Amino acid sequence: MKKIVTLILLSTLVATSCQEKVKEEAMEHIEKVDDGVIVHEEYSGPEPTEPEATEFYEPKVPVVRPASNGKIPSDAIVLFDGSSLDGWVTSKDSSAVQWHLNKDGSMTVKDKTGNIQTKQNFGDIQLHIEWASPAEVQREGQNRGNSGVFLNGIYEVQVLDQNDNDTYVNGQVGSIYKQHVPLAMASLPSGEWNTYDIIYHSPEFNADGGKIKSGTITLIHNGILVQDHVELKGTTPYIGWPKNPPHGKGPLMLQDHGDNSRVSFRNIWVREL
Ligand code: MG
Questions:
Q1: Does residue 4 have a pLDDT over 90?
Q2: How far, in whole angstroms, is CA 71 from its chain's centroid?
Q3: Is the separation of the CB atoms in 163 and 132 below 8 Å?
Q4: Given pLDDT bands bounded at 50, 70 and 90, which one contains residue 41?
Q5: CA distances from 133 to 91, 150, 152, 160, 172 (A)
Q6: Which residues sit opposite 219 in a β-bridge?
Q7: What global pTM score does this model have?
Q8: In angstroms, what is the span from residue 146 Cα to ligand 1's centroid?
Q9: How remote is the CA of residue 103 from the centroid of ligand 1, in Å?
Q10: What is the pLDDT of residues 154-168, one digit of tens each?
C-alpha cells in the first residue's frame, strides 16, 4: 500500500513539473510590464512615446513582381511551362519522362509509366501548380482522377476528382494523405483547372538523424485555405504509420496512380524560401 501511495505521489509530481515546464516555455518570450499589459520580450524597457521609435527601414525588403495575367513571380523557378519535360525524370530509374506533353501547354499522366520528379532538389518552397482531372468521369473513390504532389519527393498532397465522389476524408482532395483532413472541399467541376498554392517547410534533423523540428504545409486550393500550417507527422504511406527518415532537400514528385487516371498538370513554379 505504501508503495502505491509513493508511486501516485511521484506521478503527480512528474505531471505537475511537466505542466510547469510547458507553462514556462509558453511564457519564455513574454513578460508583464508595470501596468499589467503582457508584451513580447523584444519590447522590454521603457515604452516609446514617439512614433519614429517603433519604425525601421533596414534591411530592405526584396522587390518581387507578382504573378498576373498568367505570368509568374519575377523570382520564381519555372518547373513546367508547357514547352518541354526536360526538367523532369521518371522517378523509379531517372529515365526520360514518358508522360504526354500536350499542345495546350499541359502534361498528362501516361498510365503505368511511373511517377515523375524534378531534376532539381528543393527545401522550403512556395509552390504553384495547376491540375485537372478528366472531364469524362470514370470509376469512383480513390480510383477517380487520382494523382498527388509529393513535397520533398516524400509527403503527398492528394489530388483527386472529388466531385460527387466519396472516399475516406483523410485521403480526399486537398488532404495531406492519411494525416490531415482538408478544411474544405474546394474543387472545380471535373475537367476544369484547379490551382494549388502550397507553402512547405521541410522537417529538420540532427546529425544523428533524429527529427528536431517537424515540417509544415499550408495549402490554398482555388484561393481557399484547406491546410492551415499543419504539422507533418512523417511520410504519407498508403499502408502503415508515417515514418521519419532523415533527409535534406528533395525533388518535387507527381504521381502516376497506375489506374489510367489521366490527370493533367500545367503552370508549375516554385519560389525557394
Ligand atoms: Mg494520390
A1: no
A2: 23
A3: no
A4: confident
A5: 22, 17, 23, 7, 14
A6: 198, 227
A7: 0.85
A8: 5
A9: 25
A10: 999 999 999 999 999
